[in-house]
Task: structure prediction
Amino acid sequence: MFVLGWRLDRGRLLAGAGMLLLAALATPAVAVSLGWLVDGVAAGQPDLAVRWAVVAAGALGIELTLDNFAHIYYFELSELTDEQLNRDLIRLVNGTSRLDRRDDPAFGDRIDLLRQDVLQMRMTVQSGLQLGAIVAQVLFTTVLLATLSPVLLVLPIVALAPIFLGQRAEQILQVTREEQSPTTRSIRHLRLLTTNPASHKEIQIAGSAAYFVAQQDRLLGAYGSAMRRAQGRHALLMAGGQVLFALAYVGSVLWVYTMGRRGEASIGDVVLVVSLATQIGAQMASGLDLLGVVHRSAAGVRRFFALERENSAGAGPAMDTPAPASVGDGICLEAVGFTYPGAAAETLHDVDLRLPAGRSVALVGENGAGKSTLIALLLGLYAPTRGRLLVNGVDLAEVSPELWRTRVAALFQDFAKVELSLQHSVGIGNLPEVESREAVGVAVERAGADVLAERVGGPDALLGMAYGDGQDLSGGQWQRVGFARTLMRTRPLLLALDEPASALDAMAEQRLVDAYQAMAKEVAVMVGGVTLFVTHRLSTVRLADLVVVLDGGRIVEQGTHDELVALDGRYAQLYASQARAYAD
Result:
């Protein structure tokens, strides 16, 4: 963390450290001055006593003044550290090219801990500087005590006991925190669910607020029980260290008192030892608190480094194969299978499929059939567990996923509500043109969102109300903004739409379907690209050149709409069932 502070702002780091060090050394200097002041009074030398009184006042002034000024520097450095750590966290969470780890609950628990760690770690530089200042104080104090009597060295030596026991106590708390991470994540989820305005209507209608409160109380009880046990052991260890130091403190005072009675120490020496022993007690108390902060931060730093190593290890060899410049004769899947991390069974089984160039393809099937998973594989978000994905004869396993994803565009059912200005919410769909008014305007118009753009107040209008006085949008309006973001890429080799009309009413759906058809034709004409979409509305499926039916992770039928209806198989059953529902 000091290395990070040095890299961010070495001036503030050095200024804060220097001021803290001088303030720390001034503290035992006050005790020395008081000892000489008492000796001056006892010897009947008022001039000497006054001089040492002035020195004591000056040292105390230095201690208080520099400590306050140092706070300004290391507080500003803490702000810079917080910003950098949050940037690093974003980089690490998104540090792999695939989504495999993000589906793992254990990975989610680690990220949840890292978010908490960032709040703790921002104070590490400050706590570390203060801890260093205390170490300097203790060393200076130790030298002063040794000049009086080597026996007094027992005091700073015994003072190490609370440190070691405190470190062990913090380890107990850290282990318990990590073990309880799933519980704390569940508690935060319940709090978010019950305080999110989008959930309020259903909670009110169902009268489920009391249920959620009870669930949270149950989780809080389990968490509190585990933490109380850990804190009990923590308190015992901390108390043991403090008792040992208290015994050494009393022994040191009695020893110097005995030295004074034998004439081996002056009254000022007795005052000096009592002052230094008291200071060491305060230093140990502060040091233990700071050491706890540093120890907890160290656990966070270790988690950061572990994630960094995992990202590096999972990067694999460099992929030098360029991304296909065209689809060629199509996109082919050969015996593709896929299993989600931690799952016992495959989600996709032996998928053999050819997506013809310049054609639109509809994926049809019931929930859980594997449609969204297949799209995610084609977009390079996951790598097949087995089999191959070929584009124009190029195996995508040999192409960097990031490079392939520059050639695709997608809109998902669980699309992102990017609460930025309309310009940036749409523009990030194609980063090179994120600031282009013309490109964003064209995408908005093609998505049929031009009326929405006028209503919210133009491209600079803030969307959403998460952090500003923006425009609150309906689900369908957000989806239209998402579609405009997808259309920022005008020449994709693969355009994937996963339930693109799920949040729209009938009229809005028709307008989106019209926009989708126009986009599909452009993709086909300009680059021979493939348009792939998932929908449960089979009236929309009729527009596709090819319909692929999945069931249980396998392709069970494929053909045109008319061919599959004539086949009277699974697709015909789904189509007839939906047609009857509309007719009834």
